[in-house]
Amino acid sequence: MPFDLILRGGRVVDPSQKLDAITDVAFAGGKVAAVGTGLKADPGTDVRDVSQFIVTPGLIDLHTHVYWGGTSLGIDAEEFCRLSGVTTAVDTGSAGPGNFAGFRKHVIEPSQVRILAYLHVSHAGIFGFSHRIMVGESEELRLMNPIEAAKVADANRDLIVGIKVRVGLHSSGTSGAVPLDIALEVANEVGMPLMAHIDHPPPSYEEVLARLRPGDVLTHAFRPFPNTPATAQGTVKKAVLDARERGVLFDIGHGKGSFAFKTARAMLANGFYPDTISSDIHQLCIDGPAFDQVTTMSKFLCMGMELSDVIAASTVNAAVALRRPELGSLKPGSVGDATLVTVKQGQFDYEDVVGEHLIGDRKIVSEGVVIGGRWWHPK
User: Fold this and answer.
1) Do 310 and 278 touch, CB atoms closer than 8 A?
2) pLDDT (tens digit per residue) in 184-238
3) d(CA 324, CA 300)
4) Which of 103, 147, 296, 336 is least surrounded, with the fewest CB atoms within 10 Å of its CB?
């Protein structure tokens, strides 16, 4: 099959293959066709000189809110993904069983960017999240809709990758872990992983972890006090270590209130890296402090994570969490997505959710994306 596109001469960093080399990447039929030097172009091949760039598998943002127009927190997926190098946006609970059909028809299906979703166990998902209105959907147990959630998840397995629930004082009030237990029932019924949001107690970080199963995701994992994974002495809590040992996954989910440099420094100093780095992008944090996926990745690069580990946490590790091995890789036969980035040198001001600033010396910048084997620009 003739190549549709060749990215020529970039530094290809693909942790799924332990690859870091100057080489070419070719695409055909919407998939990665070949990786190697001197790949031969056909007369109709689009050949791009990317020798100034780093080429990675298409970035996966495991925590986004892109039900634009359907929820007050949703942002436009195509605009966001083009600017932040994301080729797969995973929406985490914007929609529930009562409004997922609209999300699918009006946003997901027309989108050129791949959108996957964790379905909220609450009937209308995260419906009351804005600058003026803040209603914790999990606080009202009458809105929990496990029967319909199971039906909708089962009927939309092509797009729904798991079940979402938000617990904590701001999202579930005094209901504690009850919404989490309901969501776990649904996840068990449909055989899918669960993503749990956590904010202020109740419930505690430890209570949530104790319920999570292998393959489940705790998002906002490096959040500030209270409900932080680190002890006052700067060590990692035993419950956190035990959860990782049994296969629970830890996701960043930066957002407006869920990432602190203090927590991250303590976790990284103990060798506890996040499994996945995600932005939790939504209307209340797209103008700061999260901004986008590459900015969130840059913060970890500036805190000492190796570039390959940062890329892994936004590609192959996210694909594992999604149980979508065709994503997050440039192995031939994988989905034909790639992201081009540069790492700028200088002084860059980064801010966390509690107002602490970090002056970093590097910044990851998105320079372009390939989606479905084609150089992509939104309309």
Assistant:
1) no
2) 999 999 999 999 999 999 999 999 999 999 999 999 999 999 999 999 999 999 9
3) 25
4) 147
